[in-house]
Amino acid sequence: MEGDDRREKGHLSDRRFDSLGSVLDPRLLSSIPFEFMSVVQAATLEHSLSGVDVLAQAKTGTGKTLAFLLPCVQRISTMLPLVSRSPSDISVLILSPTRELALQIEKEAVVLLRGFQGAIGVQHCVGGTNMETEKRALRSSRADILVATPGRLIDHLQNSGLAPQLRNVRALVLDEADRMLDMGFRRELQTILAALPSRQERPRQSLLFSATIPQGIRDVADLDENHVFVNTLRPEEQNTHQHVPQDFIIVPHTQTFAATLCILLESLSQDPKTTKPILFFSTARSTAIFFVLLETLQKQLSGVHSANLQRLSPAWQALQTVPVFELHSRKSQSQRVRATQAFTKSQTAILCSSDVTARGVDFPGVTSVIQVGLPSSGEQYIHRLGRTARAGAAGSGVLILTPYERFFLRKKEVAGLPLRERKLVFTEDDLLPEADSAIRKALMTVSDKEKSQAYQAALGYYKSSLKDLGWSPAQLVDEMNDWARQALLFQEGASGPAPPLLAKTVGKMGLKGTPGLNVVKQLPSWADDGAGDSPNDRGDVYQHLSTVRQRGSPYGRGAKVVANGRGGGAGRGARDSVVRATQSSS
DNA sequence: AAAAAAG
To answer: Among A10, A272, A411, A586, whose Cα sits 20 to 30 Å from the Cα of A50?
Structure first.
C-alpha cells in the first residue's frame, strides 16, 4: 500500500483543484472528486480554460478525461442561464472510437455536473442501442454535452434531424485522437466536421487527447494554427509501457490456448483473491472461443466431486470460481454493457476481450494484460498494455506468439520495449500438459460452426499481414487449415478438409483460386447463420468428464505435448505444479 | 471477410 501511494503521487501534481477557485464555477469546483490535479490536468488546464486549442499527449490512465471535461463544463457554465440558447442545443461534442469509452466519459461528466442540478445535461449516442430512444432523449432533454461514436452520430445527423442542434457547438473533443484521425475513422470525422458550423462564423475550441501522437496528426486535425501542444511524458520515462514488466512466450500455434491457460493458472495460484487479468485476442471469434473454453472448464470443474476438488492444486480450484467475462463486437450492446460493469466492479475476474477495450477504457485494478497472438500493430500492443499499471498501480504484460508471428518483436514501436523472453519449461509436473489436455477436452464442446467462424476470421486477419509473415496466399491457407485442424480440432468430415467458405466470401477476401480452400456454393446447415450456436450438447461432455483422476488435474494427461524439444511426461499430481519460468534477455 | 463503428 505504501508503495502504491508513492507511485500514485508520481502521476499526481502538487497543484490543488481549489487553486482554480477564482476561475471555475463553484458548482463545478465542488463536484470535482479529487483534491490534487494529475500531471496532465495541471499541464493542460491553464491553456484549455483560456479557450485555446490544445493537443495533449499523456500516458493512459492519468486523468485525461477530467482534463478535457473541466474546460468544457466551465465553458457551458459561463453561458448560463442559457437564455439565448435553445434547450436542445449541443454546446460540446465529444467523439470516442468505441461505445464503451463513450459511455465511460458520459459517466464522468455526470459526476461533474451534479452541482448544476439539471441545468446542464450530458447525453450519449452510440451504436447498438435503440435509435428511437436516443432520438427522443436528444429532443426532449438537455444535451449540452454530447458524447458520441461516429457512426451513430452520423446516423442521427442524416435520419433524426439532429443537424440543427449542432449549429451552436463551442467545443469539439477528440478522445484517442490518433485513432479518430486514422484511416478507419477519417471519412466519418470529415462528415461530422462538415455538419458543424465553420469556425469563422462560430468560434469553437478543439481539444485533442491521446497517448500517442503520430507525425502528421496536425495536418488532418481540426486544430487552430495557434494551438498549444502539451506533452506530459517525461523524456526519461516516455510512457508507462517502458516500466511495466513484459514477457513474451513463443509456442507452436497448437499450444497457444494451452499456454494462455497456463499463464492464467499461474496468476491464480499466486494471488487467487486479487488477480484480474485481461486477455486480448485478435478477432472477436477467437475471443468468443477462448471464453467458451474457460466457461466449459469451469462447468467441468464444478462437476468434480468436492472431495476430489480438494486434491487439486489451488490454481485449478481458483479457476472454478473466478468470474469470466467476454467483451467484443459480436455481442449485443446490452451484453457488452453488462460485462463492462461486472468486470469493473470485480476485485478478481478474467476478461476475454477483443480490441474494443484496447484503448482508453479504465477498468480499476487490472493486474496483467495477456495478449494472445499477433497484435494488429505495435501501437495497439502499447494501448492494450496500458489497461494495466494505471494511475501508478502495478501491473505486468505477457505476449504469446507463434514462431511465425515472431516478426512482431522487430516492429519499431516494440523493439525498444523491455520485452523479455520467457520459456515455459517442461518439467514432469508442470501445468502445460494438463492445460493442453484440458483445452482439448473443452474444444470437443465447441461447435464446428464456432470453429469455422474463427477460421474465417483468422484468414481475414492474417491476410492483412501477409508481407510481414512472408507468406504466399497458398501458405496462408495451409497454415490456417492446419490451425483449424490441429489447434481448434476442427473435424474434417463430410464437409471437406477445411472449414467451408462461400465462393462469395473467398472473392471478397481476394483469395479466389487459392489451393487448399474448401469453397462451397452453399454453407452446410450446421454452419449456416440460422443454425444454433452449439449443436454439440455440452452437457453430455460435462457428465462424461465428471470422473476425476486420483491426483492431478481433472482433465488427465492424454495429449502429447511437444514444444521446445521436450515432451510432457506423465508426472505427479497437479498439487505441486507450477509453471516454471526462466528469464532470458531477448 | 479482418478491431472498430450504422443497421
So the answer is: A10
